[in-house]
Write a structure and sequence with these properties.
By secondary structure, the protein is an alpha+beta fold. It is built from seven helices and 19 strands. The longest helix is centred in the C-terminal third of the chain and has 19 residues, at 273-291.
């Protein structure tokens, strides 16, 4: 019996309601639609099930990987011989006072933005079209069109590696561009509280509609991708650099630099992780050779390094 067999047995005894899946294909859980199987996946529905998963994993020397919607993740074709805790079912969402919202880790950012609209609160319009969840969004300080979660997150509740509950407030989040105090991946976000401002619902709705229009016009939303593949280099735009190097539309296997937006790598059908990583490397090498700018991947990886 290996440590995962022992972990499975312990979880089934301690927390029989916790859903467990063995050898689950991660291609079912990433927006790229690629990735091999994970040795064990748990899908907690509430904070107590998540706590038991993290605590028990620690007892058996297993460090979990925390997964939301997989909208910013590239997984090896060979998969990962580890333990994934997927939080998408932790979707509690409720008001806090007149201008606050409390959202579980698995709440989609689009749903969070709509909840703000329903209460006549402004500050989350930019998040309406971001495909991730609250947990992943806080972890990477997700943002778009001039907005980012750092502007509205007040308090985050998390589990440490031992399954103990902790809190991060205000500046302790250490937010910066696509980074937070949670970026190391060692703590599981349970929920976040957002502080917003009263606004005109019609103006909020109009702003969301305008941003949605701009996304549909410029982004390849009809193909599997992980959003922007590269971080924005200081003083530059990744898409402009890639297009300027003649790489827009470049294809390797089933992976392609989007013909619509060069900052996106897309799965044209049947792409493998190997296709995508080779294309990422080609883009990085070409841009550096021709411009001297180093592109840093924005996508997270599991089972491989870029």
């Amino acid at each position: 019996m290996d440590q995962f067999d022992a972990l499975i047995g312990a979880l089934r005894q301690i927390c029989p309601a916790l859903e467990l899946r063995e050898e689950e294909p991660l291609s079912r859980h990433t927006s790229f639609r690629v990735g091999g199987p994970v040795r064990l996946m748990a899908l907690p529905r509430n904070e107590e099930e998540a706590r038991m998963g993290v605590h028990t994993a620690g007892r058996y020397g297993v460090l979990p990987f925390f997964l939301g919607n997989g909208s910013n993740l590239l997984v090896s074709d060979a998969g990962w011989r580890g333990f994934v805790i997927k939080t998408s079912s932790m979707d509690r969402l409720e008001p806090v006072g007149e201008t606050g919202l409390l959202a579980g880790s698995g709440v989609p950012l689009s749903r969070l933005a709509m909840a703000a609209l329903d209460r006549g609160l402004t500050g989350l319009e930019f998040a309406h079209g971001i495909p991730g969840t609250v947990g992943g969004g806080v972890t990477m300080n997700a943002g778009a069109y001039g907005g980012e979660l750092a502007q509205v997150v007040e308090t985050t509740t998390f589990l440490d590696a031992g399954g103990n509950i902790g809190f991060v407030r205000g500046e302790a989040h250490q937010f910066s561009y696509r980074h937070s105090a949670f970026s190391g991946g060692r703590r599981l976000i349970l929920s976040a509280q957002f502080t917003l401002r009263p606004g005109d619902p019609e103006q909020i709705r109009a702003q969301m509609a305008e941003l949605d229009r701009r996304r549909r016009e410029k982004q390849p939303l009809d193909l599997p991708s992980a959003g922007s593949t590269f971080k924005r280099p200081e003083g530059h735009y990744a898409a402009a650099l890639i297009e300027g190097c003649g790489l827009k539309g470049r294809r390797l296997g089933g992976a392609q630099v989007s013909e619509k937006h060069a900052g996106f790598l897309v799965n044209r059908g049947g792409a493998t992780c190997a296709d995508l990583t080779a294309l990422i490397q080609l883009v990085r090498e070409t841009v550096f050779r021709e411009t001297g700018v180093t592109l840093e991947p924005e996508v997270r990886t599991l089972g491989l390094e870029l």
